[in-house]
Design brief:
It is a single chain. By secondary structure, the chain is an alpha+beta fold. The chain has five helices and five strands; from the N terminus they run ββααααβββα. Strands 1-5-4-3-2 form a five-stranded antiparallel β-sheet. Helix 4 runs antiparallel to helix 5. The longest helix is centred in the C-terminal third of the chain and has 30 residues. The radius of gyration is 20 Å and the shape is elongated.
């Protein structure tokens, strides 16, 4: 868990390439971003599979689905859109998605905190990164903090991967009504 720095001695350094001075942490930040990108791909595939019985399991094929999904830029709206399409088109899977919405949102928030931050370093913390919050407080992130965030996001990524397969399968085996 990131720790507040109660006594600040010295100053912090920030610059566009400051992460290069903490290369292990930079790699973890990159891994966190990549894990989230995979989750977003899974969400697109879930959306595509939910309303397109001929969709691919691992690659969205419907250009309309792709256009709709990419047009919705607000994350919460995107999650709600996926849930709505699941409820309408593959209702047997919707509850599984709904049960994970909270975890998806937590993973999104953690990823944003890490990726959209201007990191700092300080001589007092030679292995860590420092986040300066808007209120001026400093928070120290260690390698373990980044590993914990990566692990939490990875668990959600594994769920999203498995869920996209489940949705594609459910869509393909959906019972059809007999034709008169």
């Amino acid at each position: 868990m990131p720790q507040p720095i109660h006594k600040i001695g010295g100053s912090f350094e920030t610059a566009p390439k400051i992460l290069l001075k903490r290369s292990k942490l930079a790699v973890l930040i990159g891994a966190i971003a990549c894990e989230w990108a995979y989750i977003e791909d899974c969400l697109l595939n879930i959306f595509d599979s939910a309303h397109s019985p001929n969709a691919g399991v691992f690659h969205a094929r419907n250009p309309v689905a792709l256009a709709i999904f990419d047009t919705v830029t607000a994350y919460n709206a995107k999650i709600d859109l996926v849930e709505t399409v699941l409820r309408l088109c593959v209702p047997s899977t919707a509850d599984g998605f709904t049960s994970m919405k909270g975890e998806l949102r937590k993973a999104y928030s953690a990823r944003n905190q890490v990726v959209h931050t201007s990191w700092n370093i300080g001589a007092d913390f030679p292995e860590d990164l420092i986040l300066l919050e808007l209120d001026g407080k400093a928070v120290r992130y260690t390698e373990k903090d980044f590993l914990d965030i990566l692990e939490r996001i990875s668990v959600v990524r594994i769920w999203a991967h498995d869920f996209q397969i489940a949705v594609a399968h459910a869509q393909k085996v959906k019972p059809t009504s007999p034709t008169p």
